Amino acid sequence: MYKLLSRKLFGERYRGIIQGIMIAGVMAGGLSGLDVKFSMAQSVLIITMLCSAGIIVFQSVTSRDNAKYLKGFFAMPYDDRKSLIEYAAVIGLYTLFTKTSIVIGLLIAFAKLTILDGVLIGLSFLYALFGVMCMVAYKKRAPIVSVLICAAGVAMAFLLPKGMIAVAGLAAADIIVCVLILFSSMDDFRVVEVSKSKRVRSREEYSQAPKFLVPRYLMRYLLINKSAFVSSLFLMAFGVFFAWNGEKSGVPMTIGMSMGLIVINTQIGTIVSSSRTLKNKLESMPNKVEAFFVPYAVFLFVFYIICYALFLGALFTIRGGILIRPIILAPIFSLEAAIANVILEDKFTLTKWKAEPDLWHHPRKYIVPGVLVLEAALVFMI
What we know:
The chain is an all-alpha fold. The protein has helices spanning 2-10, 15-32, 42-61, 64-69, 71-74, 80-110, 115-138, 143-159, 164-182, 203-207, 213-224, 227-248, 254-262, 276-283, 288-319, 324-347, 356-360, 367-381.
C-alpha cells in the first residue's frame, strides 16, 4: 500500500516531499527577514492546524482519483491491519510535507512560537490526521463517532487551558483516535465511483436545445464532489473564529481578511482543470466564453454570495451588531473572485497534476484570495 500510493502522491524519489520542504523553508526564512512577529493565541494555533491539515486529509481519503488508482489493490488479497497503518502513514506524510508545511512555514515566519507551541502544532496535526480518518471510517456505521470527534476538536481548541494541560489533553485525544483507527478497516476508506448511467431520450428531446445545461453540470459536479461543501464550511468556521478573535485583539481588519480567505476554496474554482475531457471540448467551441464561462462566473458569484451570507450571519450573531463595510464588500468580493477564477480557468488551465489534492492546492489558488486580503486590509485601514 505504501509504495503503491506514495509513488502517485510524491512522485519519483519523493520529489513532492523535497519540493514542499524547500518551499516551506524558503518562505519561513525569507519572510522572517521582515521582522514582523505576532503573538498567536493557543486556540488560534490549534484551530489553524486542525482546519488546514484536516481539509487536506479529508480531500485525500475521499479522492475519487486515488480510488481509481487503488482499485487494483482492493482486488488482491492484502493484510488489512498493515495496509491500514501504511495508508495512514502515506496520507500523513503527504499532508504534512507537501501541504501543511507551507502553513507551518508561515507560522514560523510571522508568529512568536515557543517550544510548547511547536508541541501543540505537532499534536494538533496528529489529531487532524487520525481524527478526520476516523470521521470518514465511521461515518456510515457509527456516525455519532464522527460527530463527537469533530466536536472534540472544536472543544479542545477553545476550552483547553494554556500550558501542559493542553498538551496532555491533545495527547490523550490523539491516543483515542489512534485506537479508533485500529478498529476500522481498509474497506471503510474505499471510495465508490459514481455510476454514469445514460437515459434513453426521445427524438423530440434531442431536437430541443438543452436548457440551463451549464448550471445543471455545475450543480451535478458539486453534488458528486461533496467535499467542496465541507471545505467551505471549514473555511467559514475558521473565518468566523479568526475575525472574532482578531477584533477582540484590536485588529478589526481581520474581518475583511477572513472574507478574502473564504474564496480560497479552489475545488469549485478548478472545474475545468479537473476534467481534461471538458477542457478539450471547450477548446473546440467557438463561443466558449458566452456558452460556458459566463454561466460559470454567475454560478461562482452566487456560491460566494451564499458563503458570505452564512459567514456574516454567524459572525454578527456571535459578536452582536452589524458592520456596514463587510456587507458592502461581500458582493464586490464575490464578483471579483468569480471573474478572476473564470479568467484563470480559461487562460491558465491547470493540466500538469497527478492527484486531485495537487490540483486543489496548486499555488494558483492563492492569487485571488491574496488580492482580496490586501484589498480588505486597505479598506479597513481607511
